[in-house]
Structure formats: structure tokens, C-alpha cells
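Ligand-bound model needed. manganese (III) ion.
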Amino acid sequence: MLALDRRMFVRSVGAVAVLGLAAGRLSGDVAAQAAPVKGPFTLPPLPYDPAALEPHIDATTMGLHHGKHHAAYVNNLNAAIADKPEISSLPLEVLLAKLKDVPESVRTTVRNNAGGHANHSMFWQIMGKPGGPGPEGDLKAALDRDFSSLATLQEQFNTMGGKVFGSGWVFVTVDKGGNLALEARPNQDTPLMDGKRVLIGNDVWEHAYYLKYQNKRADYLKAWWSVVNWTAVGDRYAAATSGKLAI
Ligand code: MN3
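Prediction:
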């Protein structure tokens, strides 16, 4: 190869590598995603069109978030437990509550990916087309009792979400008595790891909002409330108080 050709070759390979990197960044942290693995866990379908949450959450973000990020958590979880029959038949919420019993060689992988699977499965369910009804009935009474008002909860929730350093989630948990509490967790950790139940949670990883909101996480946190499906949240509240809420 002549020196000039080699330079051209190196430059074009470099350009391809840069393009590949850019594409990988655009689709998030899933550039190295493995081929699909058969396993007990499956990606639940998005219960609405990816554009349904516009203009608050854009269709591109939703498509990548569900079809790439969540899919990768499911796939990685299935891969991690493929040869671990002692844990592969456990329901997701049990697996997360019993992480200390998971073989150490895969414990961190299970924690991250089972957590990611549970968190996102909850997340899609509690959102929907903007403009639906607000909290009603027992749920509204619990919000007013434990946070004095929905507006106060939103303010405290957004403040907590803004303080998550790096990637994580902010949650409202619910116990069997219907009591609500706020907490934040790093990475894909979830209150399910402590046997608690989640009423709602918001994803403050940059992949959840960066295409539309860039560094303005506070704007995303504020806008997110417009797509909370309070009917679905009310159903989760009823399930939690009757001991039937799994994840
Ligand atoms: Mn996410």
C-alpha cells in the first residue's frame, strides 16, 4: 500500500469508527448489546405508541429507551441467569429481594439488569397520553395525607430527582397500609431490593431525556408529570394495599 493510500485508508477507517461511536452514543449505552438470549424474562410491549407522550417525551427517546435500553436489561438478565437454575425460575420481585442468595459471580449483573427490567416495566405502565384525569379516591386521599397535596409531592419529588448524582431513579413507595414515602436510588437499584413496593418512579438517567432536554433535567422532571397516568397509578395503589402488586 502506498503511503498516501495508507493515510486515506486510516482516515476512512477512523471516520467509520467515529460514526460508529456516534451511533452508539445516540442509542445509549447499548452499543455492545449481545444477541438476544432466550430466557424467562421478556420485554413487555410499550402500552402506547412511542409518540403518545409528545410533546413532553419525544418518540425517538421512547423508541430507543424501550426498544434498546430496556431490551438490553432483559437480554443481559437472561444471559446472566441462563446457567443458574436455582435462581432462573424466581419471579422478578423475589430475585431482587434475594440478591444476597444470587451467586456472587453474577450478583452485580443481576442487580443492575433485574433492577433495570423492573424499573422500566413499572415506568411504561404509569405513563400515558397527556391530559388524563388526576389522582382520585383512595390514592388522592393518601397523597393529601402523606404529602399534604399533589403539588407538594411534585415539588419534593423533583427536588430529590434533581439531586441524584449521575444516573438513578426517584420513587414513591407504598406499603400494605397504603402509606407513601419518597426515596431516590442510584443506577438501576430499586426499593424492591428491600422488599418494598413502588407506586411511581421517574428515570433520571440521561438516556431518558437528553435528546429533548439536554442538560436541563429540572425541565424534564417538571414536564414528566404531564404524562403520568393517574388511572394506572390508582390501580397500582389498590393492588399494593391488597398485597397484589408485584413490581
Ligand atoms: Mn432508563
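Residues 210 and 216 are 8 Å apart (CA to CA).
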